[in-house]
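Schema walk-through. Below, the input block comes first and the output block second. Nothing else is stored per chain. Lengths vary across the set, and this one has 263 residues.
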Amino acid sequence: MKTDTIFYTLFQTLPGVLFELLEQSESLALHYQFTSVEIKELARRIDGLFLPKPDFPEDIIYFVEVQFQRDDDIYWRIITEAFLYINQYKPQRRWQAVLLFPQRSLDPGVPFIYQTSLNQLQIRIIYLDELDDVRSSSVGLGVIKLVVATEDKAVQQAKNLINQVQQTDEANRSNLLELVERMLIYKFVNKTQQELEAMFGLTDWRQTKFYQEVKEETKLETIPRLLKFGLSIEQISQALELDVNQVRQAIEKQGKEGTESNS
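--- output ---
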C-alpha cells in the first residue's frame, strides 16, 4: 500500500501528530506549515516538510521521511535533500531530519560519516511499532498505530478509532472520519466497499471515488509481478480488469521511474 500517502494526508489533517511522535506539545503545529518544496538540483519535490511560520524564528525545520520498505540509501537521500534545500532556500534556522520506520528491522543504520559530522539532534529515528500505549490517546496516533497493527488486532483497533472520531466535536468530525476511512481502504485493500461498511458500521461511505482510485492503484502495483510470471499485457489486462492501454502506460511509467532511480 502507498503508506507515505496516508502519512502525508495525516500530517496535512492533523499536523500536531508529528510533535506527539517527537514527545512535544501538539500545539506546536500552530507554528508550522506542512508543505512540499521543489529541489531544482534533484528535479524532484520534498513532500514531508514542516516549515516554521515567520512569526516563530526560533523553531526548527523538520524534514520528515516515511519509510515502509528496506532502503539502504534512505539516510544518504534525506540528508542530501536537506542540504540541497538549505543551499537553495538559505533558511536561517536549525533543522532536523525525522525518519519514521514501521519497525526497527527496516532501519539500515545511520552511515558512519553522518554519525561523526552531524549533531546528534539532527537525525531523529522513530519505530512506530514501539510507540508505547500511553501515547495512543489521540486520533492521529491512533491512525499511526493502526497502520502498523497486525491483522488480528487491526479490526478492533479500527472500530475503537472510529468510535473515538465519532465522539469528537462536530466541526472536525467529518474531516477526521474521512481520514480514518482512507486509512481503512488502504489497510484492508482486499475488502470490498460493502464488506468495509459492514465490518465497521459505516453507512455513509463518502469516499467512493477515492476507494476506486485506491483499488486501481493497487492493481497497477501488481503489474510488475505479473510480468515476471510471464503474463502478456492482454492477459494482465483481463486478470486485473483494466484497459490494455492502462497496463501499457503503467509499464512505461514504471520503466521510466526505474531508469531515473538508477541514474
